[in-house]
Design brief:
Elements (H helix, E strand, L loop, with lengths): L15 E2 L25 E3 L15 E5 L5 E6 L5 E5 L4 E6 L3 E6 L5 E7 L3 E6 L3 E5 L6 E5 L1 E2 L2 E2 L6 E3 L5 E5 L14 E5 L5 E5 L5 E6 L5 E6 L4 E9 L2 E2 L3 E5 L15 E3 L5 E5 L2 E5 L5 E5 L7 E5 L5 E6 L2 E6 L12
Antiparallel strand pairs: 1-26, 2-3, 3-29, 4-5, 5-6, 6-7, 8-9, 9-10, 10-11, 12-13, 14-15, 15-16, 16-17, 18-19, 19-20, 20-21, 20-22, 23-24, 24-25, 25-26, 27-28, 28-29
Length: 335
């Protein structure tokens, strides 16, 4: 989660930023029609410009939910239902095509990142200091990890679950007590057996995190540095030496240190980073393809829909979706 400033609404059309426009600020634009979405339905926002070849979008941006405080952590369960967090409201919401928006869990430990697992329900990073599991039928919350070397975590932020049932999660400084309980910002791994290890300890504000489709590479996106890092996964919870994967494209008024927030990945290994320019898309070889702008600064992103060709974006006060040509990767643990 980046700082909870909110981009002002602007009129016009939503834009798709291409590589030649990389240093332009995000010009997310709405039409002059009514913008507020009823929370149980959607409304459309017309897209402009050409899609990224092989990626998309291929349709209009739709508002799924609006009038929230700071949305984060989108994830899709086995039946296609959407879960996401509203951090200041201390809620986890559920959204379904049939029933629209509802409160799934409140209070929620100021939950941020979520990930669905078929075997154990939701896993959530609670910024109050815990990694937890949540049974979606009973809504029972189980603590999976809450400390390392005798101290509580700072404020767990985002996570990814591997095929062995272990969880990598980031632990930066947002909503954390000061001084930081851990004394540093890190990335941790919690094995399926509950063993906790620190796997990255040298990154400024590690935020978004995800695995490559073959789970041989871990990507970590810092929010206070433009360099996205990647690490070879030698075995679950054991990483090789990290290296710079790519650099986040900057807005004209940046200080060169604008980082990213959340991330998603498609079946071809293309990466989608939420940034000040929108959703920046990079190939597995770190080639920059362009940025898909949204009406608000995106915080996190995932794929959903029956065919996993719908991009779902949590962005400040709203949640959006748009159809894509690309197909989102579904981690084995979520199937």
């Amino acid at each position: 989660m980046l700082s909870p400033s909110i981009f002002p609404a602007m009129h016009g059309k939503a834009r798709l930023s291409r590589p030649a426009m990389a240093r332009r600020p995000m010009m997310s634009r709405l039409g002059s029609t009514v913008l507020l979405a009823v929370l149980s339905c959607t409304c459309s926002i017309t897209l402009a410009d050409d899609p990224i070849p092989g990626i998309g979008p291929v349709g209009d941006i739709e508002v799924v939910a609006a009038d929230l405080q700071f949305t984060e952590g989108p994830t899709i369960d086995g039946e296609g239902n959407l879960y996401f967090t509203d951090i200041p409201a201390d809620r986890i919401h559920r959204w379904t095509e049939a029933d629209g928006l509802s409160v799934f869990l409140e209070p929620a430990g100021h939950a941020n990142g979520l990930m669905w697992t078929a075997g154990s329900g939701l896993r959530a990073c609670q910024m109050d200091g815990k990694l937890v599991g949540i049974d979606i039928k009973t809504r029972e919350v189980t603590t999976l990890a809450e400390q390392f070397e005798g101290a509580r975590f700072n404020a767990p932020n985002d996570l990814v679950v591997d095929r062995s049932g272990g969880t990598y999660f980031t632990d930066p400084l947002y909503r954390a007590p000061m001084p930081l309980p851990q004394g540093m910002m890190s990335v941790y791994y919690v094995s399926a057996a509950g063993e906790v290890s620190r796997v990255v300890d040298d990154m400024p504000a590690p935020n978004g995190i995800l695995l490559s489709p073959d789970e041989k590479t871990l990507y970590v996106i810092p929010s206070q540095d433009s360099k996205v890092m990647c690490y070879p996964v030698l075995e679950p919870g054991k990483l090789g030496e990290g290296e710079v994967f790519c650099e986040i494209q900057q807005t004209e008024d940046s200080n060169g240190k604008q980082g990213g927030d959340g991330a998603a990945i498609d079946t071809k290994g293309n990466l989608y980073f939420t940034t000040a320019l929108g959703i920046q898309v990079f190939t597995p070889a770190a080639d920059y393809l362009g940025a898909i702008a949204f009406p608000e600064h995106p915080a996190n992103v995932t794929f959903g829909g029956s065919d996993f060709k719908t991009l779902i974006v949590t962005a400040r006060t709203s949640v959006y979706r748009v159809r894509m040509e690309a197909i989102g990767h579904r981690y084995p643990g979520a199937q």
